Amino acid sequence: MVNRAKVLAPVxxxxxxxxxxxxxxxxxxxxxxxxxxSDLEYAAAVNDGSRPHIIRPRNKQVRRFNVGGRIVxxxxxxxxxxxxxxxxxxxxxxxxxxxGYTFRSNAT
Length: 108
Fold this sequence. Notes:
Elements: H1 2-8, H2 15-19, E1 21-22, E2 26-28, E3 31-33, E4 36-37, H3 43-48, E5 49-50, E6 53-55, E7 63-67, E8 70-74, E9 77-79, E10 82-83, H4 87-99
Antiparallel strand pairs: 1-4, 2-3, 5-10, 6-9, 7-8
Helix pairs in contact: 1-4
């Protein structure tokens, strides 16, 4: 599962891919549980997506960033949100299907 999630993870710097880990397996009677994920603060936004939000500078008066090769300065950025990549969900489905497992999602 971890290896497949690393293959499916989008790569910009490689930091997200290298941070994917499995937790300790837990066994409850005949059912087991394993947590796979990343502790990076942006991992959930990459996997699940994000809603539109406002970004303000933390320590300066303006934010400086690149847009199409141009340097841009802004006091406030209205981020449109992002669509989720769902690489962890796809990894789970693929590995489960390969091994003949069924799984239940606890997501709300």
